[in-house]
Design a protein that fits this description.
Elements: H1 41-71, H2 75-80, H3 82-100, H4 112-122, H5 125-138, E1 143-150, E2 155-162, H6 167-171, E3 174-180, H7 187-190, H8 194-201, H9 207-216
Antiparallel strand pairs: 1-2, 1-3
Length: 217
């Protein structure tokens, strides 16, 4: 709904963006300690309440600056805000998916249409895990590994993205399941041994949620 800025007869109508709500940190669908012993409560609390919250806050700041620049038709400022929007917007998108694809009741195997697609495109679930593990370990510095869907080809793919680059916006693939390999996702528990963290996270993957993302796509 458009918001009036003044009650005078000559009142001006606020720009459409003024009525948009701000991004908020989503609640986790489980307690911070629910994924133990595979992912500690300390990691989950810091990761969610500190790191994800920072992405959300900085995204809101960047969008506010963007709206101001658009209102002034300040093209230079609009362009300069691109990296902040990509980084913090990607961080918010990626983590929002990440939390939902983990579960204390996870760790089984895919079933139904997703399993059929995995067997077709990778040969087996074990082959998919091997490809996701290799992609995760192979990320230099910080980033994510993803299981994504190429809707045009109807094919599953495993890819890696640097930093907080959002999968769909940068590759066109629909994100189904991602593994966060920033050190803040595992260092408190696994130190610098990323492969151990990758192995552990498969014990809490919510394949039911991943399968729903696949069928919805």
């Amino acid at each position: 709904m458009l918001r009036l800025l003044s009650s005078r007869c000559t009142s001006k109508v606020a720009p459409v963006w003024a009525s948009r709500g701000k991004h908020t940190l989503p609640d986790l669908p489980y307690d911070y300690n629910a994924l133990e012993p595979h992912i500690s409560a300390a990691i989950m609390e810091t990761h969610h309440a500190k790191h994800h919250a920072t992405y959300v806050n900085n995204l809101n700041i960047a969008e506010e600056k963007l709206h101001e620049a658009e209102a002034k038709n300040d093209i230079s400022s609009i362009i300069s805000l691109g990296p902040a929007l990509k980084f913090n917007g990607g961080g918010h998108i990626n983590h929002s998916i990440f939390w939902e694809t983990l579960s204390p009741n996870g760790g089984s195997e895919p079933c139904g249409e997703l399993k059929t697609a995995i067997d077709r495109d990778f040969g087996s679930f074990e082959n998919l895990k091997a490809k996701l593990t290799a992609a995760s370990v192979g990320v230099q510095g910080s980033g994510w590994s993803w299981l994504g869907l190429d809707k045009e080809k109807g094919q599953l793919q495993v890819v890696a993205c640097p930093n907080q680059d959002p999968l769909h916006a940068t590759t066109g693939l629909v994100p189904l399941f991602g593994i966060d390999v920033w050190e803040h996702a595992y260092y408190l528990q696994y130190k610098n041994v990323r492969p151990d963290y990758i192995k552990a996270i498969f014990n809490v993957v919510n394949w039911e949620n991943v399968g729903k993302r696949f069928t919805d796509a």
